[in-house]
Write a structure and sequence with these properties.
Strand content: 35-45%
Order of helices and strands: HEEEEEEEEEEEEEEEEE
Helix content: 10-25%
Shape: globular
Structural class: mainly beta
Number of helices: 1
Length: 199
């Protein structure tokens, strides 16, 4: 009887292992060809169902997760934040998506460990340096400065119109100050703090 009990158990274990391997393979995230980045941002997707996270940088790629819609905390609403670790073809590779604690006392609630891809223009962040540059380098020429004429408002007041990608510590954006035209270029010292400027 013992011999017959072992065979079905071994078969079940083998089937479970095969299903796990297939599942892991289906969840594999494409990272080939990505430009490495080291910035952070938050979901700007107005869809109440949340922001889709995909296995590859494509709108037809498998959805492997979802970043929930913004949630109320104390006196305002805040979006989930995440690390941005790569960029390719107008998509951003993210990880560690979580709701930061902005006063509700719930701490950092992880909602997607990652990695996974989100459409770049569904992401926003705070800009902390005024220079919008031609390329992702501190030595690149400045296209425009994100500051009001009297410098009473700095880059953290800039409106980001579009996000296209990232490279290293830089983000490729189109942004403008109040009553100024939108300009595309590279900004650095961006962060995911939705309340105040970054350090």
């Amino acid at each position: 009887m013992g011999r017959f009990a072992v065979k079905p158990l071994a078969l079940i274990v083998a089937c479970l292992a095969a299903l796990y391997a297939a599942s892991a393979h289906a969840q594999a995230v494409q990272t080939a060809g990505a430009t490495a980045c080291a910035i952070a941002g938050w979901s700007n997707d107005p869809d109440p169902a949340g922001l889709n996270v995909r296995a590859a940088p494509s709108g037809s790629a498998k959805v492997i997760g979802r970043i929930p819609a913004a949630r109320a905390q104390v006196s305002d609403t805040y979006s989930a934040e995440f690390d941005i670790i790569g960029s390719r073809d107008g998509w951003l590779l993210i990880r560690n998506a979580h709701f930061a604690d902005y006063g509700d006392g719930k701490g950092n609630q992880l909602v997607f460990a990652g990695p996974g891809w989100v459409f770049a223009d569904k992401v926003r962040f705070l800009i902390n340096t005024p220079e919008l540059r031609k390329a992702p380098s501190e030595q690149s020429p400045v296209i425009v400065r994100l500051a009001s004429a009297d410098f009473s408002m700095g880059p953290d007041s800039a409106t980001i119109d579009h996000v296209y990608g990232c490279s290293g510590l830089f983000a490729d954006v189109a942004a403008h100050m109040a009553s100024k035209p939108s300009t595309r270029g590279w900004v650095t010292r961006v962060c995911s703090n939705q309340v105040t400027t970054c350090n």
